[in-house]
Amino acid sequence: MERSGFTSTAGAIVAVITPFLCSLIAVALANMPVSILGGLVPPPLFALMPVYFWCLVRPDLMPPALAFAIGILEDLFSGGPPGVWAAAFVAAYAVVDRQRDTFAGLSGIGAILGFAAAMLVASITAYIIVSIYYGLLPPIAPLVVEIAVSVLFYVPAAIALGFLHRRLVGPQRSEI
Amino acid sequence: MANGTWKIARGKGSAQLPLAIVAVLAIVLVLLGKAQSTLFDRIRAYFSDAAAPALEWVRAPLNGASRWLSNVDDIFVVYEENLRLKDENARLRQWQNAALALDERLKRYQLLLNAVPDPSLNSVTARVIGRATRPFLDTMILDAGKQDGIKPGEAVVDPRGMIGRIFLTGQHTAWVILLTDLNSHIPVTIAPGNVQAIMAGDNTPTPVLETLASNTALKEGDQVTTSGDGGLLPPGLPVGVLVADGDKFRVALLADPSTSEDVRILDFKQPPEQPPAASPGDFPATAAGLKPHAPAEIPPSSPSEADVAPAPAKPVAAAAGTASQSTVPGASATINAPAATPQRGGDAFGNSGDNDDTGD
Question: ipTM > 0.90?
Fold first, then answer.
């Protein structure tokens, strides 16, 4: 029984830290020294993927504060103005949180479009903040490319996150 | 993707209060970052210092894989590439000979004119351990920081040309703002014509030219280099070439930050070098194959020149043994000081033998 209790506690800890660790890896991936796409296009906004994923399937493991913290990490590592992605992630989180029933009911292409909507909200928020911050309108084309690349990469990312969720977090769902 | 299969652990909208709190925090953070950017920069530098080993660890295998993949591609074009490189090598050898000859001639002219040469640029070579090419920014992280003498504002170049400037330094890492970044504005010179302008990044691969003087005639292919105005950057660093973009001109950069792995950080804030002291081989008479004046025939005209005298003749210095070791530093300092003054330089052509050993 003790072993079972220990396993349960360890599992709970793993379940709690998995979203954060995945987000941390996503931030590192997006800011790693070698460009996956050869520098031709901006790297995908990997950090938003775990935020969106767990905001839908286990919001208790991805509270707004964690989304905010991941945004700050993205700001820190990407070198941009402070708070831009933190605010953008919170905005995307707010939209997904309010429309969770709609988003959670999506599957297949719909799920990808759901992420695209979240990505659009985050990008528009970031664009507005940067425009105000610098007092000029940055070009939109790179932003559009980033949205497209991120949505494209969400397909394998969602499969990987789903796998991790089933293996590491999923068993905890029975305790909800 | 199959989001519909997951159970939802929390009811819709139950995070309203925490969301409102973090939304306010985010706004405060943006405002704080605008008002007190140094605070956030310090935290960023601390984080990049802490993350440097991890970034390095991630970089190594990815670089290996990337290199391997590019090598696989190269196999199919190796013959054509070999021919092209041979041809390029032959042309570069010719250019090298021309450059060496011109360099020698330039040194000789500088000596004749007693011109102060350009300040030497100390440099630190660093590796790129992180980069962020995003819609709103273009930065990279280097594995050299304050402990290597890196300071904000210094120019970063790769073998092809300028990449950007240092804008933040940690102990072991430094952040580079690339020329393509929204915040990058550098003074440039466009040749031919010596046209001065400001090159501004706009997060596209080709920065735009701003603040051009009116009635300037530019054309595609003109060379763009740093002008050195303001004393922030060294003059003459290659930047790129002009390309037309409607009625405006943009700059196609020579360097490609996305493929740069090792870069140099130039320290421009050095005191100007003293002009090189004369050596017999540099004088027109010697160069023309004529016998130079014998220094022994000209007696020292003042005690200060007599002080300079012990340094020159190698046999004397060698024979002096320990004495030469103690006098050479002082002697070189004495010699360098008058060499910078014009009157001394003018006299040096006659009394060149005095300081010929310190010419290099």
Answer: no
